[in-house]
Amino acid sequence: MSRVAHPLLPGTYPDPSICRVGADYWLVTSTFEYVPGLPVLHSRDLAHWTQVGHVVERAGMLDLEGIGSSGGLYAPTIRHHDGLFWVVCTLVDRDDPGRGGNFVVTATDPAGPWSDPVWLDAAGIDPSIAFDADGRAWVHGTRLVAEPEWPQQTEVWLRELDRETLRLVGPEHVLWTGAVRGAVWAEGPHLLEKDGRWYLVAAEGGTELHHAVAVARADHVTGPYEGYAGNPVLTHRHLGRGAGVVGVGHADLVEAADGSWWAVVLGSRPYGGLHTNLGRETFLVPVSWEDGWPVLAPGVGRVTDDVEVPFADPAARAGVPQVVPSGPVLPGDPRWTALRAPVGSVATPDGGGWRLPVRAATPAEPTTPAFLGVRQQHRDVDVRAVLGIAGLADGERAGLVVRQSEADHVTLTATPTGDAVLVRAVHRRGGVETVLGEAARPAADALTLGLRVRGQRYALVVEEGERVTAVAVADGSTLDSMATGGFVGLWLGVVATSDGRPTSSVVEVRAFEYHPREVLEG
Q: What is the mean pLDDT of residues 153-182?
């Protein structure tokens, strides 16, 4: 037997969806405005995961330009039927409700390539798909009730999907409005068939402290559905703000190869107060069935620090990102993301870094700046970037960024100024910028900038051999989604901008390293 430490996927891996094909498990999560979008992860034992690709990985598959932070790709569902993998998802523009919508893509290999998106004539968010014994496909999702009994009341709808035309056909069925009267956002619905019954598993209560998992069942996929008297089947809302994991919900169930049942759920680990810098992460709980109903985390009723997976291989190599490699993050590493579209970076000939074209856009704009980043996956971590800045024009800048959104981020950038380089730390908070500190360094071909993150203390430094110059310290508790709003954790990365001026400059990202301190220090 093997005990698997939580979280299963650390960092911003929310809204997990899972399916099994033979001995293989496949999982996808939300990515919002980051691209490549919708990571696809593979496991043989539910414990050790390796990322094999992304669903949205080609330029032009989806247009995210102008979509603000915490918009973009919401709550995908992955399923397999008759030799084909299916993913349905929502593209959301929080500033323009008329933009985006629900779409479906397919692939014969979950590693890709995936088909171009086909848009579905369906309002709302969080689509899912299920296949019945006759091979018919049923798409379901969440939307606001047209004439609600209470604010933010939602309903789960269902329609058949024509598998040939990928169009919704036939009558619509409203299945569910939630287990608790007055609860907001009955969302993230998933249908599964077991022992001749259909089960609807859905979240409700919003995706923060009151998040919960509820279940209903019916004899037919179209209903009517009866709620379980034991709802919610999983929540941490009754544990209070001091719980080690909060906001647990958005479950998807899977039957393992040995006949046991499991659920992947999201949750957040606050620290330094009610702050969730690492975002909403993926956890695993066992499921039992009693009197025809699922019991999540039986005998415990909550997400624990670790979980026993009897069939997990203790000798299996941990994949990315369950145990994050400590050291260089190289080109081709699946952790790298850009914003809204690829940034046109080109790997250096030695394969150890990139040539990153400078862009006029800044991190404060909902567009595609010259940005490459990785999720923050540890409370304590050292990050360093070696930047070749000789290609910068006077007044242009490049450096590190701790990113929550356009309105909330911290940058440590270097700007050539004749015979010197000005290193400046700036905190943009709620759209207002404050200079945290500055340091002048002699002109140089390259500069090493670093982050020393210890809990909510983000130290921004310049490294010159053994010499480390502290430029400023940023307060991480002002950067997480609890403080700023939104749905994502923090990204740590590099950025290069001309601040609106035309440019043809290029920065060399000669090295980028991510060193979790808990890994290095045991």
A: 96
Give the closest residue to 17 by CA, choosing from 265, 305, 367: 265
Question: Residue 132 in contact with residue 220, Cβ under 8 Å?
Answer: no
Cβ 188 vs Cβ 249: under 8 Å: yes
Cβ proximity of 126 and 175 under 8 Å: no
For residue 80, give both structure tokens: 């397999």
CB 120 within 8 A of CB 159: no
What residues are paired with 157 via a beta bridge? Answer: 141, 174
- pLDDT tens digits, 229-288: 999 999 999 999 999 999 999 999 999 999 999 999 999 999 999 999 999 999 999 999
Q: Cα angle at 258 between 11 and 289, to 5 degrees? A: 80
Active site residue 187: yes
CB atoms within 10 A of CB 347: 14
Helices (H) and strands (E) in the chain, counts: 2, 39
Q: How far is CA 234 from CA 181, 199, 212, 247, 295, in A?
A: 17, 15, 6, 10, 8
pTM above 0.90, yes or no: yes
Tell me how far apart the alpha carbons of residues 449 and 359 are, in angstroms, rounded to a whole number.
20
Sign of the alpha-carbon torsion through 473, 474, 476, 478: positive
Active-site pick, 15, 204, 382, 508: 15
Query: Active site includes 116?
Result: no
Element (H, E) at 517: helix 517-520
User: Residue 315's pLDDT is what?
Assistant: 66
Domains, the chain:
2-309 (2.115.10.20), 327-520 (2.60.120.200)
Q: Does the pLDDT of residue 83 top 50, yes or no?
A: yes
Give the chain's mean pLDDT. 94
| 18 DSSP β-pair partners | 27
For 346-369, what is each residue's pLDDT tens digit?
988 888 899 999 999 999 999 999
Three-state SS at 478: helix
Summarised one tens digit per residue, pLDDT across range 112-126 is: 999 999 999 999 999
Contacts of 19 (CB under 8 A, 6+ apart): 25, 26, 78, 79, 80, 254
* Count of C-beta atoms within a 10 Å radius of residue 49: 24
Distance from C-alpha of 169 to C-alpha of 160, rounded to nearest angstrom: 5
Name the active-site residue from 187, 406, 408, 480: 187
pLDDT at 325: 63
